């Protein structure tokens, strides 16, 4: 299947661009293995809802994250919605080589993410490499990608680390510059264990936008302490337009790589979309079908998830606000 080259959905007039992360960042936290067909069906549903970006899979070592052993099979089976970016996560050069092979075969991702951590301890735990070694990898990976994908740089622990504590914002901004120098023009700042505050969020994203106006900032917050939504509003007020979220608020660290504690999941897509739409911020998402898809996500995982609007319903004043 050839990748769709139409105008991106993210440029269709919506105010914000949401990336649905259930199928990758969400499922990496799950012990239950979903079938490839189930994952393909969910990703198709996310595209039908109108998401402009979808995390589809990860080229991970299946011994570490067995959930994604079917990465190539999934991408081959996946129908593509026009103008949608389907992202695959790549932690090393071997992963990029796999992504290139799938793209050459005509069924690859059109976007890949390259990962670094803001701290050495987390880098060693999550990637089994020091920061210095991983930055060498990033240079090799970006060069190997050869312009075949849109590259997304992700900085984990950008707001604080459970192992090393506070993170120097100047160091994070320097990492954004390193990604830019490697040819990466979309950079995600990750609040991986939910330690950020709205003030921290606004300040760091404002500084990033001033220092690197040609880099698109992406906000990725976890709702570990119930601060995810307020941090996203702070990021929005600071000029951020791209946000990550996951149906049901699932996700967090890989199931076999434990760090952080309590609920480590992402911000719930349902709650974020409902909030933005009630603020008059156009998300491009089909609100009528949103809860049906959310219920399907609960069904495949076999439990009640964390989205509040699934239990309470969408805000009934939305039409009045709009």
Write the layout of secondary structure elements.
Blueprint lengths: L16 E4 L1 H5 L9 H14 L3 E6 L12 H7 L7 E6 L2 H12 L6 E7 L2 H8 L3 H15 L4 E7 L12 H13 L4 E6 L6 H14 L4 E6 L6 H10 L4 E4 L23 H10 L8 H15 L6 H5 L5 H4 L1
Parallel strand pairs: 1-2, 1-8, 2-3, 3-4, 4-5, 5-6, 6-7, 7-8
SSE pattern, N- to C-terminal:
EHHEHEHEHHEHEHEHEHHHH
Q: Main beta sheet, described?
A: 8 strands, parallel, barrel
Spatial strand sequence of the major β-sheet: 1-2-3-4-5-6-7-8
**Unreliable stretches:** none
Count of beta strands: 8
Q: What's the number of helices? A: 13
Give the terminus-to-terminus CA distance: 39 Å
Q: Provide the helix percentage.
A: 40-55%
- The helix-and-strand class reads alpha/beta
Portion in beta strands: 5-15%
Q: Output mean pLDDT.
A: 93
Shape, principal axes of CA atoms? globular
What is the C-alpha radius of gyration, as a whole number of Å? 18 Å
Please provide a written account of the structure.
This protein is α/β, with parallel strands linked by helices. Helices cover 41% and strands 14% of the residues. It is built from 13 helices and eight strands. The chain has an eight-stranded parallel β-barrel, surrounded by eight helices. Helix 4 (93-104) packs parallel to helix 6 (131-145). It is globular. The protein starts with 16 loop residues before the first strand and ends with a helix. The mean pLDDT is 93.
Keywords:
322 residues, alpha/beta, 8-stranded parallel beta barrel, 13 helices, 8 strands, 41% helix, globular
Give a quick summary of the entry.
The chain has 322 residues and is α/β, with parallel strands linked by helices.
